[in-house]
Amino acid sequence: MRDETAPVRDERETGGRWRHHQRHEHLAPGPALAPWVDHLWAVDWDYPEPYAQKVPPSASVHLTARDGAPPHWHGVTTRHVVRELRGRGRVVGIAVRPGLARDLVAGAVSELTDTGRAAGGPPGLVGVAALGDWLAARLPDAPDAAALEAAAAVDLVRDDPALLRVEDLARRCGSHPRRLQRLFAEHVGAGPKWVIRWYRLREVTDRMAAGRRIAWAPLAHDLGYADQAHLIRDVTALLGETPTAYAARYPPAEIL
């Protein structure tokens, strides 16, 4: 029997049905943007009835323009947010390489964490190419040494799934945990502990989105958790819903 007190889930967000209403595009940056940018993206949607879109946390700073409005900077998001999509719309964006946003946002990247502000650009940048051209015209000649150091540290975290502790990251960087904390606050927008956890948990969400088999106990061990309960707790905190509820957004996966 269904629990009458439980909230009724919007069927459009389960089983991959949201793909009938949304189109996502990811593009590699061109030569001018490549030193600074991870990727460019666009999302189009068509919802006759309002839809609550859950957006997971992100370790990147994004430059976005929605429906031709002036562009905005959005900082690292350490928790999920919900945005209402209604009717037809389009948002284009640029994900800055973690560690390289300070010169672009003109200040410590941590000041932008979990918030946003106008980027000072004109309206009408409705395409990815137009937004990219606008940003490219305003880029410094090259990232400074501290930004490159921060970006290299994040790259280490991204590329090495066995890297689980801030102390180990600091040693790999030839640095000290406290200095790494300051570097990440200035250039990344979140602390190294959060960044490590985000990349490790992204491996989990990527597996769920791909419909891959998930064996929680071995995965928890691989990611440095004491047990699967602690891993599931962190996934739930990151996404704002249980792994089972999140996985239901996609075609069925095998969850053990």
UniProtKB/TrEMBL annotation:
Q: Which SMART domains match?
A: HTH_ARAC
Q: Which residues form the HTH araC/xylS-type domain?
A: 151-249
Record Pfam families: DUF6597 (PF20240), HTH_18 (PF12833)
* Alphabetic keyword roster: DNA-binding, Transcription, Transcription regulation
Source organism superkingdom: Bacteria
Which InterPro entries does its entry note? Answer: AraC_XylS_family_regulators (IPR050204), DUF6597 (IPR046532), HTH_AraC (IPR018060)
Q: Where is this region: Disordered?
A: 1-24
Q: Where is the composition biased (Basic and acidic residues)?
A: 1-16
Output one GO MF annotation.
DNA-binding transcription factor activity
Concerning PROSITE patterns, the annotation shows: HTH_ARAC_FAMILY_2
**Quick check: keyword Transcription in the entry?**
yes
UniProt name for this protein: AraC-like DNA-binding protein
Annotated source species: Actinomycetospora corticicola
